[in-house]
């Protein structure tokens, strides 16, 4: 099992534009159109499947919300921070 990170550690390690929300980290990405957001969400899903660490993804017109948490541990771990960085690298 991965070790939970405390709030101060999470805040200091979060990539730009990511936020701590309870026991999750979250970011909203903006797109010019709906299908661009859908394609991005699909790419995030591919990375998530490779890493076996799946986010909650919400697709809206021009926006995609991505949320990571480590359910088994009950909060944010190094793996969530890593996935946030991998997700940002897609943009």
Describe this structure in words.
- The structure is a single chain.
- With 91 residues, the protein is of the alpha+beta class.
- The chain has one domain: Transcriptional coactivator/pterin dehydratase (Gyrase A, domain 2), CATH 3.30.1360.
- It has 3 helices and 4 strands, in the order αββαββα.
- Strands 1-2-4-3 form a 4-stranded antiparallel β-sheet.
- A hairpin with a 2-residue loop joins β1 and β2.
- The protein is globular and about 35 Å long.
- InterPro entries: PCD_sf, Pterin_deHydtase.
- One of its GO terms (molecular function) is 4-alpha-hydroxytetrahydrobiopterin dehydratase activity.
- Keywords: Lyase.
- It catalyses: (4aS,6R)-4a-hydroxy-L-erythro-5,6,7,8-tetrahydrobiopterin = (6R)-L-erythro-6,7-dihydrobiopterin + H2O.
Helix and strand topology:
Elements: H1 7-13, E1 19-21, E2 24-30, H2 34-51, E3 56-60, E4 63-68, H3 78-89
Antiparallel strand pairs: 1-2, 2-4, 3-4
Instruction: Characterize the main sheet.
Output: 4 strands, antiparallel
* Count of beta strands: 4
* Helical content band: 40-55%
Straight-line distance between termini: 30 Å
Give the C-alpha Rg: 13 Å
- The CATH topology assignment is Gyrase A, domain 2
How are strands sequenced across the largest beta sheet? 1-2-4-3
**How many domains, in number, for the residues?**
1
Relative strand content = 15-25%
CATH top level? Answer: Alpha Beta
Quickly count the helices. Answer: 3
Helix/strand order, N-terminal first? HEEHEEH
What structural category arises from helix and sheet content?
alpha+beta
CATH architecture designation: 2-Layer Sandwich
Uncertain spans = none
């Amino acid at each position: 099992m991965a070790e939970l990170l405390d709030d101060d550690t999470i805040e200091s390690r979060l990539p730009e534009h990511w936020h701590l929300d309870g026991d999750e980290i979250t970011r909203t990405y903006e797109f010019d159109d709906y299908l661009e957001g859908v394609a991005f969400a699909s790419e995030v899903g591919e990375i998530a499947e490779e890493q076996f660490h799946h986010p909650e993804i919400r697709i809206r017109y021009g926006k995609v919300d991505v949320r990571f948490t480590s359910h088994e541990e009950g909060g944010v771990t190094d793996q969530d921070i890593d996935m946030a960085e991998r997700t940002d690298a897609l943009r």
